[in-house]
Amino acid sequence: MHGTLGYFMVLMAGALAASAQAADWSDTALGYRYGASFAEPFIPDEVTKHIVSLTHVGGDRYGSHFLNVDLLLSDGKDPDRVGSGTGAREIYLVYRYTLDLGKLADREFRFGPVRGLGLSAGLDLNSKADAGYNSRKRMLVAGPTLMLDVPGFLNLSLLALWESNAPYNGYTQSATPRYRYRTHPALDLAWAIPFGSGFSFEGYGDFIAAKGRNEFGGETAAETHLDMKLLYDLGSAVGARKHSLKAGIGYEWWKNKFGNDAAGPAGPGAFARTPMVRAEYHF
Question: What's this model's pTM, rounded to 2 decimal places?
């Protein structure tokens, strides 16, 4: 555990340094969320997780960037190794950069509900220590983005995904050489919409096509992943800076998690329906 926490802190520091370019605006937050009904493919029981995150967003003269690093700590139902009562540990990093074509061309691309056009690119990386799969996901993404005209922001992207993994099965003690899935499309939504007095509705949704056969020759399934949160700004209420402290509730709906068919051998663990409590400190 100590090694994972240390690696997480180093990764956070490096990620912030990498994104610390000249920016017109930026926001960095430490987050925490907790839920008792997470799901993992091939695990029939619900899993409790504590998740600590670092999120950094910012804008420069050409567009905006988003960086998130999660440290996910499972309970013993998702063990870190065969025969262990200690829960799995995972680090998951997401980075996206959206080039604003209007800023690049010094003109507006506004029509109907659209207030701008962009090109998005980025990557996902993860490392998980668990009994059955030990994921080492690597994924590049790229595609066009529509920026919709709403309070806050709502971006809709059509992305191509280039994904690979190199798992290790602790039960069979067998390693799989890095395997590349078929290039596949995804429809991605990301939003943060303020409303009322101090509330915001934020989240993302991914609708991902099947990615061909997996490392073991089985067919993958189309995947839907929604992660939503309703937060309230507690900053002013506790005498802190406005928007510095937020808390609220969240909900994750994830069908066919990581392309595993919930109606197949992966079972109910491939279909997560998870309420959460969430908190964020912005600095």
Answer: 0.90
